[in-house]
Write a structure and sequence with these properties.
The chain is built from 7 helices and 3 strands. It has about 260 residues and is mainly α.
Amino acid sequence: MATKKTAETAAPITVEDKLKALYQLQETDSKIDEIQRLRGELPLEVKDLEDELAGLQTRIDKIQGEIAQRKEDVAAKKNEIKEAQNQIKRYEAQQMEVRNNREYEAITKEMEFQKLEIELCEKRIREFTFDIENKTAVLENTQAKYEERMVDLKQKQNELDEIVGETKKELEDLSAKSKELEALIEARLLSAYKRIRSNARNGLAVVSVSRDACGGCFNKIPPQRQLDIRSYKKIIVCEYCGRILIDSDFGNAKPAETPSEQA
């Protein structure tokens, strides 16, 4: 009995077994694709909104910094005005003590210079204040846009979380089954399956022959090639699209057993 069991264990995997595993893997991966399609563009929309919000926040921080700097500039100019006014008062006191016209004229020129400095400072204050008003308006608009986008993000995130929550268990089960089925398939064949699947727009690497045509590209399959497909003697691919071909009744065959099902 032990000898018989060893011989059975060592029996080579047939082409039919390989096709069964590939067929099951395709069915499982297609269900995973369907769940991903159900999520649609939501993950990308959420990511785009997160990036936009990050950009808006950077802009808000920059504008706030510029406004703060302009307010400091205004305060500095006001201090310069006070200093010039104090200087004028000192010059006025000195004028009362001058001894000749020359000293009087010199002090008068200094006073005029300080008055010009005050006028210049007042001009700069008006410019800075106007700039603050403009930047404040831009800041308010940017903050309003930020709040709008935040509402959009929360809505999209809630939609995505709801879909993910509903499909999480199913997706986990399907992903685990896909891994188990991959373990049944030799590396070279699995690599070919994944390559074909990645190049196929609908993700189908294994398709059945329906109405004498490939189920992937719909090109006609010659009768002799259909007989070869039904014989399960070798894995046959479509000469037009490269997909792995199976018989239309193959889905009714007994599926390959995964390690978890064998246990």
